[in-house]
Design goal:
Elements lengths: L2 H28 L15 E9 L6 E10 L5 E4 L11 E4 L4 H36 L1
Antiparallel strand pairs: 1-2, 3-4
Length: 135
């Protein structure tokens, strides 16, 4: 496999990984203000972990999502003694999702996605120029 094809495969793997990351971030944001039902814990923030893998066909290093784990950070407590999920002291456990952190992560994932799209476009343009030279 030629190097320009390897560029496309590597960038494609990064696009898939960042898409998964954006999906998890959107899930976190959707549950940022959730509380658990009485007797249950609220939604726990999820974190995506990436790892490197070797594409044997091209010899290129690719990226993949190696796992999605729960953030062990403590839940946020909110005083609301009338809430059905309130504990004996009147506090309600809310999700440990911090919307500002998720917005920063979303922006970073979007920038990485954009950079990899540009990489694919550059590879296509280089391939087109090579065909023009040879033709």
């Amino acid at each position: 496999m030629d190097n320009l094809s390897a560029v496309s495969r590597t960038a494609g793997s990064a696009l898939r990984a960042q898409s998964e990351r954006l999906r998890i971030i959107s899930e976190n944001m959707a549950n940022a203000d959730s509380t658990g039902l009485p007797g249950t814990d609220p939604y726990r923030r999820k974190v995506v972990t990436f790892s490197e893998m070797l594409d044997r066909e091209s010899g290129a290093n690719m990226v993949r999502v190696s796992g999605v784990s729960e953030d062990p950070a403590p839940m946020r407590l909110h005083y609301d003694p009338s809430h059905p999920s309130a504990n004996e002291e009147g506090f309600v456990a809310r999700s440990n999702v911090e919307p500002l952190v998720e917005m920063v992560n979303m922006r970073e994932a979007a920038r990485s996605y954009e950079a990899n799209l540009n990489m694919m476009s550059a590879g296509r343009e280089m391939r087109r120029m090579m065909i023009d030279i040879l033709g």
